[in-house]
Write a structure and sequence with these properties.
Number of helices: 18
Radius of gyration: 23 Å
Order of helices and strands: EEHHHHHHHHHHHHHHHHHH
Largest sheet: 2 strands, antiparallel
Shape: globular
Strand order of the largest sheet: 1-2
Length: about 475
Amino acid sequence: MAAEESRCLLGRPASDSCPRVQNKKLYLATFAAVLGPLSFGFVLGYSSPVIPELRKISDPKLRMDSSQASWFGSVVTLGAAAGGVLGGYLVDKVGRKLSLMLCSIPYVFGYIVIISAQNVWMLYLGRTLTGLASGITSLVVPVYISEVSHPKVRGMLGSCVQLMVVTGILGAYVAGVTLKWRWLAVLCSFPSCIMLLFMSFMPETPRFLLNRNKRSEAIASLCFLRGPHADHEWECRQIEAGVQEEGLNLSEFKNPSIYRPLLIGVALMFFQQVTGINAVMFYAETIFEDANFKVIGDSRMASVVVGSIQVCFTAVAALTIDKTGRKVLLYISGIIMALSTALFGLYFKMVLSNRNNSSNPDTWFTLNSASPGTESGISWLAVVSLGLFVAGFALGWGPVPWLVISEIFPLKARGILSGACVLTNWVMAFLVTKEFHDFIGFLTSSGTFWLFSAFCCLSVTFTAFYVPETKGQTLEQIEAYFRRS
């Protein structure tokens, strides 16, 4: 049966007489947890359909200019950066389960503030609160899933985090086609409420419980997650062998078992943002319009098309990651992204080559500025590049970094090290989003995308030399690998 795996999945030799591990309740616990990333995706997707509406709204206190609209979209990243730090503290102090339940509070309060907003500042506050919750979610959920899963399915279940994020983004895009901004906020608040309800019935992770010397509760958690017929005592002993009770102090950051996974995690988060995902998504609607993609209908439907590509290829990654491994997907993803951003650069070079002021930052979005023959002849190059880039990112550099950082950190430092990585990710997301306009002015559109292509190449090189393959290994084996190094 699909819901059953032999005990050898936990690292023990298989035999005809070995009891069976049942995955049904593990999948249920994962489903409850990934309602958090679904909420996170709704937060990210909310601004795309709402900003055009708020820029035209009749109430002058809520109407936004271009600068305010930019902050409405990007203030989420600042809240999420703070949420990463707070999540790193909470996940080690109160546990994985309770941290996840607590993050539903700023989600709901944030949307209440948005729904009742009377001015732009209330909208900013609501977005910051939902961003704070998103930052906590982006840290806690990968840790929770990695600690309740066994090696054979940990990659697939861990990739479901990113799958649910892009599903949430797509859901916000689709709902935004018909719903007004206040009703869309009401809809976006539902997943976090359902998560709070479901998680109240799910167990804490066995590793956290054993780290708190709660062995009987850890056995009960394993019984829920693996079914009644698995060898819970054996797995409990395997986890206990890797548990280090002492706390983390600053002197231990000199230890390679601490600083090496930290540097790898921070670098993965850095490369995920500087390879250009936010910039390419920023271009998406304009590219479709420029290509005369009439079948799309309007710019909102263009976002739906891009969101659908993300969901499909993230699902492919989730289904294949435990067979191909983490590094293979990062290689394929990085190469596809490098080629597509290089094509983007070529496209902008050709389109804007006849303009003397192509370095002007206001010309980056003037995609139809070249002669009609030139523009219509190569506009499909931009559409193909966009599709390739989004598919490539979703296949590897979207889901895999979040999975790897949930696997490589030692148990006693998992909260603080994950917090540093989440903080890096969201700070870089904010900087890339806010400074992208200045990059265009300094490097021109083509130069900026060629810079992104160079970063994609660097990401592949970094993966080859420094990222360990974690496929099929228990978290304790991964921790032992860094301890030996």
